[in-house]
């Protein structure tokens, strides 16, 4: 998460939406780059709800803000497949976070289990958790589709921050594999995380 005092902008880093590249490029000009070190009230992947409730009040006391929140949002199946591929990397071999022993279909089914029953590899927060308030309403002021290669969010930030933005790919998942998803599992996913699909379709 990056905070810019002058334009009063906060860039939220929803995992797997290209925000690693944005953070790497913009953190050198940010007034605050939250990375989750000890003592910070926020980390790189802070939700809008936590920002509004825990971080922004302190910044307001310091004379900064109020802030507009900016984030990207990815098509839900593509987003989860990116996690699946990312957790197939060799460095996770033999660890409970690895997805190498699962098909993508099995991984999606595991993600749809109740939190207490999810295996560690599928224990993820949905995108809606990062961009909605406690009541489930979108609380990000400017939400952009990831699938546009972040052109819209990059153009918006370049204009508001008065900088040129050229992004390199960072934290990229391995080449797509195991993308097959049964209709039954897709329906399960859509029911379990309906808000994610509704948010994406509204953009």
TrEMBL record:
<keyword id="KW-0614">Plasmid</keyword>
<dbReference type="InterPro" id="IPR027417">
    <property type="entry name" value="P-loop_NTPase"/>
</dbReference>
<dbReference type="Pfam" id="PF03567">
    <property type="entry name" value="Sulfotransfer_2"/>
</dbReference>
<protein>
    <submittedName>
        <fullName>Gamma-glutamyl kinase</fullName>
    </submittedName>
</protein>
<dbReference type="GO" id="GO:0008146">
    <property type="term" value="F:sulfotransferase activity"/>
</dbReference>
<keyword id="KW-0808">Transferase</keyword>
<dbReference type="GO" id="GO:0016020">
    <property type="term" value="C:membrane"/>
</dbReference>
<dbReference type="InterPro" id="IPR005331">
    <property type="entry name" value="Sulfotransferase"/>
</dbReference>
<dbReference type="GO" id="GO:0016301">
    <property type="term" value="F:kinase activity"/>
</dbReference>
<keyword id="KW-0418">Kinase</keyword>
């Amino acid at each position: 998460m990056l905070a810019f005092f002058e334009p009063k902008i906060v860039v939220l880093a929803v995992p797997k939406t290209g925000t690693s590249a944005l953070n790497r490029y913009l953190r050198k000009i940010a007034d605050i780059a939250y990375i989750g070190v000890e003592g910070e009230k926020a980390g790189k992947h802070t939700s809008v709800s936590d920002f509004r409730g825990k971080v922004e009040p302190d910044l307001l006391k310091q004379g900064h803000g109020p802030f507009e929140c900016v984030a990207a949002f990815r098509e839900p199946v593509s987003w989860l497949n990116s996690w699946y591929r990312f957790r197939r990397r060799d460095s996770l071999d033999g660890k409970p976070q690895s997805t190498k022993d699962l098909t993508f279909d099995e991984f999606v089914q595991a993600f749809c289990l109740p939190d207490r029953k999810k295996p560690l590899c599928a224990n993820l927060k949905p995108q809606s958790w990062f961009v909605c308030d406690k009541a489930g309403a979108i609380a990000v002021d400017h939400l952009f589709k990831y699938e546009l290669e972040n052109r819209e969010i990059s153009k918006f930030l370049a204009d508001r921050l008065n900088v040129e933005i050229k992004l390199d790919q960072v934290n990229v998942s391995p080449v797509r594999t195991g993308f097959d998803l049964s209709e039954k599992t897709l329906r399960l996913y859509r029911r379990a995380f309906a808000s994610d699909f509704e948010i994406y379709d509204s953009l």
